[in-house]
Amino acid sequence: MRPTRRRTRLLLAATLAFAALAVPLGVHAARGADAATAAKPSEPEREPAGSECRTSVEGSRVVAYCHNPYPSTDLVQLHTECERWWDVDADGAAVAVEPGRTVRLEDRCWKEIATAWVSHRPAPV
């Protein structure tokens, strides 16, 4: 009977020690989360920006049309990844899309195209 009592006491002591350590850490983490959100000044809302792009792939050619409906200029860049290992992947030149304008971006591979996508970034002021 004696080993059972010892194990029970050890289990109870370990549980109390764990609770004594875990509760203050949880309270500290909760206070830190509240303090971080409360101390953070409200940021002004950003204006919507960026072009809407539609990309189509036909065989070894890719074409993307990007339209910018917003009042700020957007820089777009077409990236093409070719299917064959020996075919060179390409990153096109960045093109500025003025407000209310549409641009056409195109590229090709020697054989098939694996993927193509357009990246965006705001134009420098």
Description:
The radius of gyration is 29 Å and the shape is elongated. Strand 3 and strand 4 form a beta hairpin. It is an alpha+beta fold and 125 residues long. Strands 3, 4, 5 and 7 form a 4-stranded antiparallel sheet that branches. The mean pLDDT is 82. Helix content is 30%, strand content 36%.
Concise summary:
This protein is an alpha+beta fold and 125 residues long. It contains one helix and seven strands.
The mean pLDDT is 82
Largest beta-sheet details: 4 strands, antiparallel
- Discrete helix count: 1
List the helices and strands in order.
HEEEEEEE
List keywords for this structure.
30% helix, alpha+beta, four-stranded antiparallel β-sheet, three-stranded antiparallel β-sheet, elongated, 125 residues, 1 helix
List the helices and strands and how they pair.
Elements (H helix, E strand, L loop, with lengths): L1 H38 L12 E7 L2 E7 L6 E9 L7 E2 L3 E3 L4 E7 L4 E10 L3
